[in-house]
Structure formats: structure tokens, C-alpha cells
Amino acid sequence: MVGEEGAFVLGWDEVLTEEELSMTLKVLCMSAEEFQEYKEQDGWEDDSEEEENSTLSNEALSRLKAPCKKLLSDSVLLTLESYRSDLKAEQELLDKKEAFEQLSRREQQALHVRYGQKRILHQLLELLA
């Protein structure tokens, strides 16, 4: 369901691996009985009509059912915990021109990437609250 990397790709406005996230949330939020019934339905047939009408834009994410929001929110928090520093520390380093310039070009680029990733994750937490 999740692909080889085992991760979902989020953008500023929507989920870029929408199909994978949608299916994963659907399955993980099912009761054991619902899952068994779903499995027994001719394999994993497409719910194309349902999925066609449900893109995972930021607006749609904010309307997820409570169990799906909780699961996604907990996943985001775990991802944020995997970083060595928090968003505020990254912002402070970006704001301190002298300290930022002491970093190598590669470290500066990595800082920008980490900061962007954390901002997207924090935005997602706000949408799910």
C-alpha cells in the first residue's frame, strides 16, 4: 500500500501520494470485522468512484473522520520526533545570518530542506486539530 520507500509525500496544498495515503487510512481505521469483509470482496478491488471524488487536499484532510485524523496526527508527531531539532531551532539558525553563513553550502541546503519538511508537518498538524 505504501510503496517501496514506506513514506507518504505531502505538499503545501495536498497529499502527493494521495492514493496510497487514502487506502492506508481506510484500511488502518477499519474494525477487524470491516477489514475481514473488505478482504473477502474480490480481493482489493478499486473504489474508483469513491476515490475519484475524494482528493486529499488540505481542506479534505481537515474533514477526515476522527480515528483517521488521530492516526495521521500521531504519525506526524512520530516523524517530527525523529528530527534532532525542532522547527523553532531551525528557524533561529536561519534567522542568525552569522551562524548560518558558518555552515557549509551542503549544510545550508539541508537546513532549508529540514525546515520546509517540518513546516509542512506542522501545517498538517494544524489541519488535523
UniProtKB/TrEMBL annotation:
One GO term (biological process): methylation
Any single Gene Ontology cellular-component annotation: nucleus
Key words, A-Z: Methyltransferase, Nucleus, S-adenosyl-L-methionine, Transferase
SUPFAM superfamilies the record matches: RuBisCo LSMT C-terminal, substrate-binding domain
Compositional bias ranges of the Acidic residues kind: 43-53
GO molecular function, one term: methyltransferase activity
Source organism superkingdom: Eukaryota
Cellular compartment(s): Nucleus
Cleavable signal peptide: none
Entry-linked Pfam families: Rubis-subs-bind
Chain residue ranges for the region called Disordered: 39-59
Location of the Rubisco LSMT substrate-binding domain: 4-121
Residue ranges that the Swiss-Prot or TrEMBL entry lists as coiled coil: none
Protein name: N-lysine methyltransferase SETD6
Source species of the chain: Indicator maculatus (spotted honeyguide)
